[in-house]
Structures are given as C-alpha cells and as structure tokens.
From TrEMBL:
GO terms for molecular function: oxidoreductase activity. The lineage of its organism: Bacteria, Pseudomonadati, Pseudomonadota, Gammaproteobacteria, Alteromonadales. One of its GO terms (biological process) is carboxylic acid metabolic process. One of its GO terms (cellular component) is cytoplasm. Belongs to the ornithine cyclodeaminase/mu-crystallin family. PANTHER family: KETIMINE REDUCTASE MU-CRYSTALLIN. This is Ornithine cyclodeaminase family protein. Pfam families: OCD_Mu_crystall (PF02423). Gene3D superfamilies: NAD(P)-binding Rossmann-like Domain (3.40.50.720), ornithine cyclodeaminase, domain 1 (3.30.1780.10). InterPro entries: NAD(P)-bd_dom_sf, ODC_Mu_crystall, ODC_N.
Length: 314
C-alpha cells in the first residue's frame, strides 16, 4: 500500500486533469451512502465523520476529525485532519492511504469549477471570491481553469489574509489581475461569478445585489441553521447541488427558505451528476441567475484519490 503526503498530493494534481476525471466520475453510476457525521461531545462542535463511496474500479472512505478550537489551544494544530483509504474494487486490497485534507481542497474547488463549467456564462471574466482560508487560492485557480477570467477580487475580514491569498494565486497565475474587495454592495453587482468559501453563519450580502447572468457558488457552510446567502438569492436563482441527499440534510442555504415556505425540494433543478450526464441542461440563457450549493461528496474524494494514485503510474 502506498502512502501519499500532502506535498505529494499537490505534486500529482492539476485542475484540468482533476476536473475531467470528476466529470467522468459524476457521469457514471456509483454507490454513494449518505455521509455520517458523529458529534463527539454534547454542546461542542467537535466531530468525527466518515464518507464512503465505490464504483466499478475502486472503493474509498474518507475519515476526518473537526475540532475548531485546536488553533486556540496550539497554533501548530489544525482544526481539521483527514485521511482517505483507497481499495481495489475487485480484490478489496488496500491500495493507498492519502492525505485527505489536501485532497479536500483540490476536489472542493474542482467540483465548484466543474459546476461552473455548466452554469456560469461562457464569457465570465470577473470573479468575486469571498473567504481567505486555506481553500481560497484553490477556488480562484479552479474557476480560472474553466472560464476566461481576467480579474479576481478577493474579500475577507483581515487585510493581511486577503494579501496572502493574492500572493498565492499570483504565484500560479501571474496573468490574472488580483485585488482586494471592500464594499460588497459595489462588488457583488459587478461579478460574473461569486464564490463563497467562508465560515459565515449569516448571509454575506443582499441577494438583490446579484446581477442577472451571474453565477453563485457556495461551499463554506455545512450547518442547518447557517448560510452564506439569503433566501432572496435562492428564490431568484436556478439552483443545482452536488448531492440532494446531503444538501437537503445539512445546508441552511436551502433548508431555511424551505422552512420559511418560500421554496420546496423541487426548487433544486438537478445534481452535478445530472449536469455531467446531460440530463439537466444547466444555464439556459445569458440573463439567468444560477446557484450551486456544495457540501462535499465522497464520490469527489474517490475520483480525486484515484487521480493521485494513478498519477504515479499505477
């Protein structure tokens, strides 16, 4: 069994290859049980989760711990640790143990970019990225790999964190014009793609600010009572998700407007798999507002882990 560190994952992956492999994986039929998240202590957010998936080639299970107070205890500690086990589907033999945290950054961003390849306008040039965490540079680079972006505006609450994201993205894509964003009331209406990867539990902006023709991508919230966008944006948009089962179980972006009686489950027009198979059309006209909500899929973990494993010649 091979072991892949985070550095080796970063070395093996690139967005054009990963997005192509994800598209193929989502177009195929797979067995995908709902992921299981186990609270570790009553009244605390600490959790342990398992995400299994398998297809006719492989089996993968990602296990991760989430302990958000870790950095407060020790700056050297991360809030999330993750590993992926990859097995051969036909023999059951373990093939690889792969750093799951790095894979999660890559596959989360690649899934959003894959969705944007169906939902964002072909001529989208301006990306507004909200969030400055570890995922942020991956989101910017992934979207820039599927649309002809020329400008990326980055918003965050700490200017030094915004500057760090700009440096990281510029290192990979010096051709892009990268700059901080400040007033979202001005920034949101000008964006062709709005990508939210924050820890926010309250809407980040007024949904009425989003211009016709824009695409919104929401990946940061995984809580029933939290959301990165308001109900109005959901109501005004054609909505797609990575997984109906998971999103309608844990994403406040949809569960809250459903509780308000504004929408029902039929407001979700399709899953990413439907877009990849061609059973959902995706964007239908240039003025359509589209929205993609992702909470993470074990299928994406499986496809990304297999991309890492196969990249070594296996």
């Amino acid at each position: 069994m091979q072991i892949f560190s985070a550095a080796e994952v970063h070395q093996q992956l690139n967005f054009p290859l990963l997005i192509a492999n994800l598209k193929q994986a989502f177009a195929n039929s797979v067995d995908l049980p709902r992921r299981q998240v186990y609270p570790l202590q009553q009244g605390k957010p600490d959790a342990f989760a398992l995400l299994p998936a398998w297809d006719n080639q492989g089996i993968a299970v990602k296990a991760f711990t989430y302990m958000p107070d870790n950095p407060k205890k020790d700056p050297a500690l991360a809030s999330l640790y993750s590993q992926i086990l990859l097995f051969d589907r036909h023999t059951g033999q373990p093939q690889a143990l792969i750093d799951g945290t790095s894979v999660t950054y890559w596959r989360t961003a690649a899934v959003s970019a894959l969705a944007a390849s169906f939902l964002a306008r072909q001529d989208a040039k301006r990306l507004l990225l909200l969030g400055t965490g570890n995922l942020a540079p991956f989101m910017a680079l992934a979207h820039a790999s599927v649309r002809p972006l020329t400008e990326i505006r980055i918003w965050g609450r700490r200017p030094e964190a915004v500057a760090e994201v700009i440096r990281n993205v510029a290192r990979e894509r010096p051709d892009l014009h990268l700059s901080p964003a400040s007033d979202l009331a001005e920034e949101v209406p000008q964006a062709d793609i709005i990508s939210c990867a924050t820890g926010a539990h309250e809407p980040l902006f007024n949904g009425e600010w989003v211009s016709p023709g824009s695409h919104c991508d929401l990946v940061g919230n995984h809580h029933k009572g939290g959301r990165e966008c308001d109900s109005q944006l959901v109501l005004n948009s054609s909505v797609y998700v990575d997984s109906r089962t998971n999103v309608l179980h844990e994403a406040g972006e949809l569960l809250i407007p459903m509780a308000e009686g504004l929408i029902n489950e039929s407001h979700v027009l399709g899953e990413l798999a439907d877009l990849c198979r061609g059973t959902s059309i995706g964007r239908k006209h240039p003025q359509e507002r589209t929205l993609f909500k992702s909470v993470g899929s074990a299928l994406a973990d499986l496809a990304a882990a297999r991309t890492v494993f196969n990249g070594t010649g296996n």
